[in-house]
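Q: Convert this sequence to structure tokens.
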Amino acid sequence: MVNNSDLATNENSTGNIETPHHNAAEAPTSANPEAHKDTTGAHNSATESHNAAAEGHGGGNVFTELLTGIGDHHGLYIFDKHITDLPMIIYDNQEGFHYYNSEHAMAEAGQFKLVHGKGLTKTSNDLPVTLDLSVTNLVFYQWTSIIIIMIALQMLAKFYRKGTNQAPKAKSFANMVELGIEFVRDNIVYKCIPSKKLGDKLLPYFIGLHFFILIMNLLGLVPGGHTASGDIGTTAALAVISLFVINLSSIKELGLGNFLKHLTGGAPWWLWPIMIPIEIISIFTKPFALTIRLYANMTAGHVMLFSLIGLVFFFKSLGVAPITVGFSVFIITLEFLVAVLQAYIFTMLTAVFTGVATAHHDDSHSEGHTAHSH
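A:
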């Protein structure tokens, strides 16, 4: 999952430590262009010799090189092999829409550039572009997850249209998909959302959410694959959707007036200046917790795995290989469990938050009914 272009970038960026040769190269006189060329050549030679010396001293930045593979790239990579370029789609208020077949084509055009730490910027003034719609490595894996889910559901629908008396393989696949759907319905949605009517309406969303996260997590465990859910932008987008689902469901079930009334937390009016800000903050802390939990858990396993692999290259000895391999197998097994568990937790917490936000209506109704009977 580490690409060669990133490795080259890391080597150059980490290897340019100031030395007497570098200082000499940084002080050319503009009055003598030939001297500037000679000095620049000496600077490049010194840099190359410094990088070679760094490699000979044990590869101090091997961990940085390996961990680079976890990030996003403007190209499709499997392991360190570049499979194909991915399109760059840019919108800027001043420049308008621009489409490039690859990052290289964008660089040749000279209108935009990719700056580490800033993202896409305009070449003329180094300001960020208004909107980056480029297809990246992780976006490709998100699309792959969606396609897998669509194919699985289409096959399940086809199976039931033809009837259940079919080949054992088709029946086994259909039973597996159906088991997953029933698990989400019975153990997540119906258990966490008190209103069955609301649960039935939201069931397609929760099924799609659970399987989308699960497939993304599992694709990251395929050799050479990438984990799209290990990107905070992906988890944040899923959490924002959950935020709308939770609060819009609450407004629809309770009504806008009761929804706003719950912002007081049922406290006396003189505590409202304290309770209302707390309740508003709690609305946004829920999706924030969903974002960080999924992102951190899916990234941590990869960081540990790459760190263990990096020990072999750092020490340049096969003596540590049995230890790193043993721990790596354990981490991969643990990552599989985490991948399945995190898909369940994200879906379950979204359902729990939705149930809590809509359950007050039933509670207040039952309390009023009890008071009336007494």
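The CA atoms of residues 149 and 211 lie 7 Å apart.
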